[in-house]
Amino acid sequence: MKLVHTADLHLGYRAYHRTNAYGINIREADVARTFRELLDRTAEIAPDLFLVAGDVFHTVRPSNAAIADAFRRFSRFHLAAPETQVVIIAGNHDSPRAAETGNILRLFAEIPSVQVVYQEPKRLSFPQLDAAVLCLPHNALVSEVQPVIEPDPDAAVNILMAHTAHESLKLISHFGAAVMRSDDVKPEEWSYVALGHYHLYEKLAPNMVYPGAIERTSIDVWLEADQPKGFIEFDVVEGRLGFHELESPRPVIDLEPIAGRDLTPAELDQAIEAALDSVPGGIDGKIIRLRVFDVPRDVYRELDHRRIREYRTRALHFHLDARPPQIVRREGSAAPGRRLTLQEELVAFLRHRWKPDSGKVDREALIELGLRYLQQAQEAESAEGRD
Asked: How far, in Å, CA of 151 to CA of 198, rounded?
């Protein structure tokens, strides 16, 4: 028996306020293109099971265009691979807080051979494969009643699919998701454990994997800049796992930082130009960040901002992240300490010091939203230049 496992499609994702000739956000079109490649290549494999482990859409209420395109693509996939059984679960991005709101993923259950689990935990049986899939969508894992995570003793093949953040991952990956502890799941008890939420490919066990997102759609895309994007093919009988890389339509490049201390404006202009000239194939249409440390405000003001605007016009997105000299302050213990960044201050306040009136506030979701707004504000400031 063979399966394909993907997650975190984030269809409808938009960024950078640039549109193509059809008026569609360029990054949204990039994600849609990669999604089509995913389905085409999965249809060629024609697996017995196609597992989509959450975050099909980037928002709870995606645009009509994103919904229509996804429905057409999944319908065409069924025609191309009619024997493949598709199982979709909801992630935190496509799960409304209130159950009565409904879930757009229900629509895809209208397609033959597609089953969707979006609210409660549910075990799906596939007698023709002698297999069972225990589905744990986001809302099932954040519920007050925790699901029983056990394989089906009557099935020869047992698969667990969950949209969750494993506790062994970096803290940033926990934002907005339930956290799975290491002792919640014993991978040796399962034929395969298909996870979603973490945007990087991560193999936690020979049969327990995050495939990562199909495109670079995280809050901090620079963490994914040099990481491959793709999907998993797993042979249950032989226990053989393969990662198939998808062709990203648009490079995301995080250039080596520049030490700006003691550089004149002219020297810094030359260093910026040299860094951008080093990009293979040029910067046109690409997503690029260049960090410059220890740049006094007066030096930044004297840079050639006309040239910087030209760079931004050529690239899809060019983020010149110019940072002023680090301020060192003394803490109560009289020991010198590093000044917290605005992002660190936000996380520390919301996680530890803020006491909301209502106990129902999802702190991690709020932190994720706050960090996203801060990133957007910083990118807008960088695009306009400082006064």
From this structure: 23
pTM: 0.83
Picking from 8, 31, 12, 57, the residue whose alpha carbon sits closest to that of residue 211 is: 8
pLDDT reading at 339 higher than 60: no
**pLDDT confidence tier of residue 386, bands split at 50, 70 and 90:** very low
Task: Say which CATH number the domain at 209 has.
Answer: 3.60.21.10
Residue 332 located in a structural domain: no
Instruction: Name the DSSP class of 331.
Output: -
Cβ contacts of 62 within 8 Å, gap of 6 or more: 11, 12, 94, 104
Q: Which two tokens stand for residue 185?
A: 């799941």
Q: Are residues 27 and 88 in the same domain?
A: yes
DSSP string, 307-336: HHHHHHHHSSEEEEEE-PPPPEEE-TTS-E
Q: What's the structural domain count of the chain?
A: 3
- Phi/psi for 239 (5° steps) reads 65, 30
Residues 266-287 pLDDT 10s: 999 999 999 999 999 999 999 9
